[in-house]
């Protein structure tokens, strides 16, 4: 049943994750109340108010924008992770592991160091810097990792780690030189999602819509590319153009995620992998399902981050790394025998 | 008419094909033979547009192939490559449908005529019962037939095959080649096929092109090209050719040293 209706099941999961994410916090609000407050915002519905005004304020001003930003981030990371995996024909490609997220982080922090966002326009600039950072990084990693026509697992991970470490070092350097913003930028980069309120959400949405549309268009290209570049060309694909399209798209979506939530690892690895195991390798489905599933997965990780050491909140990137690193090793072991492509 | 004229291909300083000219008519099977490294695969890859040619022309019914985009070319040329991988996680049906890439839009949506072409191709090659199997679960011979099905689904007037019988057992070799011959005859398909097995060439090819070190040494009917002299020159091996077999095509036997 779950196998046949991936979109319905993942939408239900996303809805539940959103409601619980909004319900949990210093003040617990019943999920039923959460749903009522959200429905009450719709223009045509008139729901009798049975909750204190402060609840509505907490939800609408603080928790809902946070949850939506987390959902967008998860969607962007999982979608771009799926695209990178298809592009490199490599099950371990993930925006974090191949260093692209760190490059985007450097780009984002550069923009923030120059001009900390004070208004919506300021927020719009962050993804531009992050996008430039991710494109430069992917170009460097790709040219380093390439051996002939292939991008082998080992060289991909090694060059990803090297470039990622290098850009992280540059980022630290930059942060140490802009002292008043060290704390904010640091917690941002740890995936602490220090940006809050509706402005980052509003800034992320147009980029995200563009990213999702382009990712969905990448699905067919990625399917054909799974047969190798030579066969893809013989089947009628303009290979270089298709690859450039996928790289730009995946880098854009990575940039959106990193711009507003910092560097969060492993979501782009775990989610497409689970989706592939359950719903198969057809990228025309794999990508949209990963986008939906990535939202839910990061929302769940974020709930854990807030619950595990409550009232303290962990950076969500720590939770995804705690779950993701063992998963990474598990895939690495299986990659020797299992057929992914 | 499919025409290759004065084709020259180099890898760096090494000339791997020199001034090769071949014509193949509709309904005809032309077999490319020659020792390892003679340039058979290079010729097929050059024609299919995946490696650069240095000079020469390739055309189909007067249309210059080198001017075409990959999509346009894939509507004229179907390729059964020698190389893997075969996208192990895809099902056979998904694989064969990707033969329709050149006919699909950006989203890769299969229209009814694409489904129909894929179904026809799977039926022709006898893989329709495997439609929902993943490629990784197939034997080498089944994978080879899936590759043929994918090329047939392209519904092109020209079919290029690079040593298609390499992974097949005797039964499947014969069935595969008989299928290709029938397709050529009934569908007016133009077939250019690299083959190692000279007895298969003798049985199934209408004409034979012998390549040695990148040069076309002989081009003609099997009787004209499969001679003891030519084969000895090409393969540095003494062979004996036995004809007069009551209608069976001549058999080529290597002499035991």
Give a written overview of the molecule.
- The complex is a heterodimer of chains A (341) and B (257).
- Chain A has 341 residues and is mainly α.
- Helix content of chain A is 74%, strand content 0%.
- In chain A, helix 1 crosses helix 2 and helix 3 packs antiparallel against helix 10.
- By secondary structure, chain B is of the alpha/beta class.
- Chain B folds into 2 domains: 145 residues, Rossmann fold, CATH 3.40.50; 65 residues, no CATH class.
- In chain B, a hairpin with an 8-residue loop joins strand 11 and strand 12.
- The longest helix of chain B is centred in the last third of the chain and has 18 residues.
- Chains A and B meet through helix 8 and helix 9 of A and helix 2 of B.
Low-confidence sequence ranges of chain A: none
Beta content of chain B comes to: 25-35%
Give me the secondary-structure category of chain A.
mainly alpha
CATH architecture of chain A: Orthogonal Bundle
Instruction: Give the terminus-to-terminus CA distance of chain B.
Output: 43 Å
Arithmetic mean of pLDDT of chain A: 86
Outline type of chain B: globular
Number of strands of chain B: 12
What name does CATH use for the topology of the largest domain in chain B? Answer: Rossmann fold
- What's the overall geometry of chain A? globular
Number of E-state strands of chain A: 0
Helical content class of chain A? over 70%
Which homologous superfamily in CATH is the superfamily of the largest domain in chain B? Answer: P-loop containing nucleotide triphosphate hydrolases
Structure keywords:
heterodimer, A: 341 residues, mainly alpha, ABC transporter involved in vitamin B12 uptake, BtuC, globular, B: 257 residues, alpha/beta, Rossmann fold, 2 domains, six-stranded mixed β-sheet, four-stranded antiparallel β-sheet, 32% helix
Task: Give the SSE map.
The complex is a heterodimer of chains A (341) and B (257).
Chain A: H1 6-23, H2 31-40, H3 53-88, H4 100-114, H5 120-145, H6 153-176, H7 182-189, H8 198-225, H9 229-234, H10 239-261, H11 267-279, H12 283-307, H13 316-334
Chain B: E1 2-11, E2 14-24, E3 29-33, H1 40-47, E4 55-60, E5 63-64, H2 70-74, E6 77-80, H3 92-97, H4 112-124, H5 140-153, E7 158-162, H6 170-187, E8 190-194, H7 198-204, E9 207-212, E10 215-220, H8 222-225, H9 228-235, E11 239-242, E12 251-254
Parallel strand pairs in B: 3-8, 3-9, 6-7, 7-8
Antiparallel strand pairs in B: 1-2, 1-4, 4-5, 9-10, 11-12
Helix pairs in contact in B: 4-5
């Amino acid at each position: 049943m779950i196998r046949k209706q991936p979109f319905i099941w993942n939408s239900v999961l996303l809805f539940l994750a959103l409601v619980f994410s909004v319900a949990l916090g210093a003040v617990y609000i019943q999920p039923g109340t959460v749903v009522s407050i959200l429905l009450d915002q719709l223009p045509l519905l008139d729901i009798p108010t049975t909750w204190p005004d402060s609840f509505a304020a907490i939800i609408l001003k603080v928790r809902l924008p946070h949850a939506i930003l987390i959902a967008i981030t998860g969607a962007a990371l999982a979608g771009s992770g799926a695209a990178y995996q298809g592009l490199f024909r490599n099950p371990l490609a993930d925006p974090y592991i191949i260093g692209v997220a760190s490059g985007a982080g450097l780009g984002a922090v550069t923009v923030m160091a120059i001009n900390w966002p004070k208004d919506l326009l300021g927020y719009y600039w962050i993804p531009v810097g992050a996008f430039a950072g991710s494109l430069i990084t992917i170009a460097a990693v790709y040219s380093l990792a390439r051996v002939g026509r292939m991008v082998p697992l080992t060289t991909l991970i090694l060059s990803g780690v090297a470039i990622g470490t290098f850009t992280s070092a540059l980022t630290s350097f930059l942060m140490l030189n802009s002292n008043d913003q060290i704390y904010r930028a640091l917690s941002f980069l740890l995936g602490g999602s220090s940006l809050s309120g509706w402005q980052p959400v509003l800034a992320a949405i147009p980029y995200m819509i563009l990213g999702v549309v382009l990712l969905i268009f990448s699905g067919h290209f990625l399917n054909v590319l799974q047969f190798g570049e030579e066969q893809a060309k013989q089947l009628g694909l303009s290979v270089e153009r298709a690859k450039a399209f996928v790289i730009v798209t995946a880098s854009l979506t990575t940039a959106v995620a990193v711009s507003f939530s910092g560097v969060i690892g492993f979501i782009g690895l775990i989610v497409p992998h689970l989706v592939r195991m359950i719903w198969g390798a057809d990228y025309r489905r794999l990508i949209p399902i990963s986008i939906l599933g990535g939202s839910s997965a990061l929302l769940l990780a974020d709930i854990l981050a807030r619950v595990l050491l409550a009232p303290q909140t962990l950076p969500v990137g720590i939770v995804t790394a705690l779950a993701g690193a063992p998963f990474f090793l598990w895939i690495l072991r299986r990659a020797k025998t299992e057929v992914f492509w | 008419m499919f025409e290759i004229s004065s084709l020259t291909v180099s890898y760096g300083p090494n000339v791997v094909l020199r001034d090769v000219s071949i014509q193949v008519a509709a309904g005809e099977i032309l077999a490319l033979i020659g020792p390892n490294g003679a340039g058979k695969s290079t010729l097929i890859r050059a024609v299919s547009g995946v490696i650069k040619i240095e000079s020469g022309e390739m055309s189909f019914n007067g249309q210059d192939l080198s001017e075409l985009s990959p999509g346009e070319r894939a509507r004229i040329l179907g390729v059964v490559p020698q190389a893997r991988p075969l996208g192990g996680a895809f099902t056979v049906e998904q694989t064969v449908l990707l033969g329709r890439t050149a006919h699909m839009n950006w989203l890769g949506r299969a229209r009814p005529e694409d489904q129909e072409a894929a179904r026809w191709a799977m039926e022709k090659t006898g893989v329709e019962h495997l439609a929902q199997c993943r490629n990784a679960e197939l034997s080498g011979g089944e994978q080879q037939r899936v590759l043929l099905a994918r090329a047939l689904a392209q519904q092109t007037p020209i079919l290029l095959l690079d040593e298609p019988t390499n992974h097949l057992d005797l039964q499947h070799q014969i069935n595969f080649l008989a299928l290709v011959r029938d397709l050529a005859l009934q569908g007016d398909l133009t077939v250019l096929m690299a083959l190692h097995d000279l007895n298969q060439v003798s049985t199934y090819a209408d004409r034979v092109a012998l390549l040695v070190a990148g040069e076309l040494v002989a081009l003609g009917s099997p009787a004209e090209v499969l001679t003891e002299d030519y084969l000895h020159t090409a393969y540095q091996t003494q062979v004996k050719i036995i004809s007069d077999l009551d209608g069976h095509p001549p058999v080529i036997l290597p002499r035991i040293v």
